[in-house]
Amino acid sequence: MDAVSALAIRHVPALAPGDRLGPILIEAIRATGLEISDGDILVVCQKVVSKAEGRVLDLASVVPSPRALGFAREHGKDPRVIEVVLRESRRIVRMERGVIISETATGLVCANAGVDCSNAWRPDFVTLLPLDPDASARGLLEELGAHAGRRIAVVLTDTFGRPWREGLVDVAIGVAGLRPLIDLRGRTDLAGRPLEVSVIALADQVAAAAGMVMEKGEGIPAAIVRGAGAWLGQGSAVEMVRPPEKDLFR
Amino acid sequence: MDAVSALAIRHVPALAPGDRLGPILIEAIRATGLEISDGDILVVCQKVVSKAEGRVLDLASVVPSPRALGFAREHGKDPRVIEVVLRESRRIVRMERGVIISETATGLVCANAGVDCSNAWRPDFVTLLPLDPDASARGLLEELGAHAGRRIAVVLTDTFGRPWREGLVDVAIGVAGLRPLIDLRGRTDLAGRPLEVSVIALADQVAAAAGMVMEKGEGIPAAIVRGAGAWLGQGSAVEMVRPPEKDLFR
After folding, report:
1. What 8-state DSSP symbol labels residue A149?
2. How far apart are alpha carbons B22 and B134 in whole angstroms?
3. Domain assignment of residue B248, yes or no
4. Which one of A10, A59, A163, A215 is at 20 to 30 Å from A119 when CA atoms are compared?
5. At B92, which CATH number?
6. Which domain holds residue A218?
7. Which chain B residues contact residue A99 at CB under 8 A?
């Protein structure tokens, strides 16, 4: 890989539940003046996928539990949002200082189980993560790959905080057509010693690179990452979830 | 930002303590056929900086403490390496299952306090993190910026694991001439609601993008990230360390 580029996809309109994201992205890519090439990785932020898939929720329909009411009152939060976060969590990792870090149904560990109030479909709605982000990625892969007649990959991203470090980075929550982890185990350095760096989280590096051009709040929810075609192959984002028994921070 | 590219810098020779990294990188950039442009971010992996700065250590000189001996025996590790890791740590975050996650002198939290056995200077040597990675970045910025007559930034990277996710990503451990965090607080979405995504860890996204072309074990320890010049400015990697009182995972 001598050069890898992230190219912003502009002209993606506001989405509503039921919209077909594939044709919308195809048109946006065309309107941006881009063309899908062999080896391209199409990166799409979770929010537009969630909206198209109808993973939005009217907060007026939510009745908060006593637990949600208590946490919301203590920390000045909307109890309906807390209730949705708790429902979207299969396990709570931390719930303190107004912050909920939890594990989603697909094993992602993140703030608020991915429930998001900004840029939702309508006021007083929230967006939820796609039910099966890998399946969403596969759907887009089939649709856009077939349309363009190209071999491509798709990465769905969300923007996560991390322990110990300030700021958020885009990470891969759904993957299709890409090897998400590059396994260097068994390789050695120039002196024949095993490499300390063993497995590279390629799909997260792709997501982070795309994150530089998918500017938040500027309506750029998608990008093409070009130049990483050597890593196309089989894979899913589920492979990137560390098994709890190997994790020191659950 | 419509496009951001990461360009591999080839032809960086093996380094030894005392080598002047600035001129070596200038020559490698030339030999690769690249030219430094205004707004470029020069990304350099920690290991070559550490070697040039003499941050290498002969394990033969290390006498392990009883604590290092005990942990090494229990987990089949080299007690001299464990001893160096403990010395480089100002605080241990986790020390179990053969893994040490600790805090370095500059507040980075990572495996083995950044002590690395692969690609070290000589057999039986380890590399340590630069004493002051921001200062190392500033030094390279002055040298390469002045040489090229361009306004650039420098990011020093290391490859870190993360809780909950498999695989390693490149992160920024030293920054000069770049705003490492992009603060979106106060901005609103199209409907006037505050953005959920508040602060972007730009320098880490830059590091991750560069990480795709800085292939481990292939002797590509540096890259140019081009197209992100709008974010050049004042900054340091110390800003990216979350204060302990705000951290739920120390």
Report:
1. T
2. 15
3. no
4. A163
5. 3.90.1660.10
6. 5-55+130-241
7. 248
CA A123 to chain centre: 23
The answer to the question of residue B88 being in a domain is: yes
Q: Convert the pLDDT of each residue in A173-225 to its tens digit.
A: 999 999 999 998 888 776 777 776 689 999 999 999 999 999 876 689 999 99
- Min Cα separation B50/chain A (Å): 16
As given in the structure block, the two tokens for residue A196 are: 């300390």
Nearest CA in chain B to A8: B2
Measured CA distances, A36 to A120, A137, B124, B156 (Å) = 28, 16, 49, 33
Q: Which uninterrupted H or E stretch holds B4? A: strand B3-9
Q: Tell me the per-residue pLDDT of A102-123, one tens digit each, with 9 for 90 and over.
A: 999 999 999 999 999 887 778 8
Closest CA to A134 of A183, A172, A85: A172
Task: Count Cβ atoms below 10 Å from residue B157 Cβ, excluding itself.
Answer: 30
| Degrees, nearest 5: CA angle A161-A162-A163 | 135
B156 and B121 share a domain?
Answer: no
pLDDT at B196 over 70: no
